[in-house]
Amino acid sequence: MTQQPVRASNPENFPAEVDVAIIGAGPAGTSAAALLHDRGWRTCIVERETFPRFVIGESLLARCMDLLDEAGLLDAVKARDYFVKRGALFVRGGEQADIDFADQFTPGWTWTWQVPRADFDLTLANAVVDRGVPLFYGHEVTAVTTAPTPSLRVHGPSGEHTLRARHIIDASGYGRVLPRLLGLDRPSSLPERKSLFAHVRHDARPEGALANRIWVVLHPKGAWVWLIPLSDGITSVGLVAEPSFFANWPGTDEEIFRAALLEEPNCRARLADMELVFAPRALQGYSAAVSQLCGPGFTLVGNATEFLDPVFSSGVTLALESANRAAKLVDRELRGERVDWAQEYGAYLMRGVETFRAFVLGWYTGEFPEILFSPNQNQAIREQITSVLAGYVWDESNPFVKQPARRMKQVLRIVRHVNG
Ligand SMILES: Cc1cc2nc3c(=O)[nH]c(=O)nc-3n(C[C@H](O)[C@H](O)[C@H](O)COP(=O)(O)OP(=O)(O)OC[C@H]3O[C@@H](n4cnc5c(N)ncnc54)[C@H](O)[C@@H]3O)c2cc1C
What we know:
FAD/NAD(P)-binding domain; 3 domains; 8-stranded mixed sheet; binds flavin-adenine dinucleotide
């Protein structure tokens, strides 16, 4: 993968006023900016870091392709030659359950990518700058006013700025800028979990057609592990569990990371010779929720909204979907149309989130793995599950989308009946 230059706007040209101010240049922020810019609005992205910057979350879902395409960003990503992702392999001891996006209930994309996020996010950012969106790196939003005129206080290399806008989109991810500043943060309904992850070399990847397949491995001591092969010879590896899991081994995070992985036979077979590219990083208590997704003059998108859990790689998909929806509604509102934000944004977004929530809850109760690894698979049910795991979580003709929790229980009963 070739290095790419960073295209950024000159801080001297920081504007005083735009139509839409966007906080954060992750996938949510850049895709929202692309859609609004193409509709003729003056947008501006304010980003705290300088790019490329590391963020975790390399596995995309097929639904991302529709959304990148609609934002006019697909060709820029295609040019980066990332590994193609056609599904995911779930592994539990000697059992395997392969999800192939080609076998779907909902018509849609059958593939996507596994992306090194530093490069992927820079690719999207460069593409929107090339199109004419001002993007200011090294500028941090420190305060917000939503009424009567929305505005942001921004600290940058050339000092303090006030940026007035007709609408603010908060795409600040884990920064959770507006939830923090406006007191919208709410505790997640999910128990606190911890992840320990790193990039590694010398992963003994399997040979053949499934060589680059993402693996999700159940660990016998109550964790799960992701292995995401990337096109530059690096594999992203992470453990996720309740914090007590990591107390099973003594030592530093690196010693715990190695010991925990090498205790699971499938991981040991691949990672016995692994060399860490960077020391394992820990994230804990990342699940988050908010009391409202939007309000007068502002909308939250991506991880600044609700973040559930990494297990089904839903983060970037929800980031792109919320940004897509928000950008179209902001466009309508700025044109003077009435928008029912609660219904058209909040309720819509939560329908997809609730589908993933049922799957996440089912994963940790063990009910979803029971369905997934069931020896007698019903093809129709399998296709419905695959569409959810491909990110098509707004297709209400899929029973897992229409009534996620109920369908999960119903299918569990079928599986138990069939398997005696
Ligand atoms: C352990 C773990 C594993 C994960 N694995 C996956 C996966 O495999 N696939 C997947 O799809 N998702 C995954 N995710 C989720 C994924 O990381 C996020 O959902 C995704 O990055 C959200 O994108 P975003 O655009 O909302 O925010 P981000 O990509 O986080 O971007 C937000 C940007 O806002 C900037 N910012 C923050 N504060 C400020 C401020 N005050 N002023 C200006 N800028 C600011 C930040 O610097 C950042 O660049 C995982 C999450 C965890 C915790």
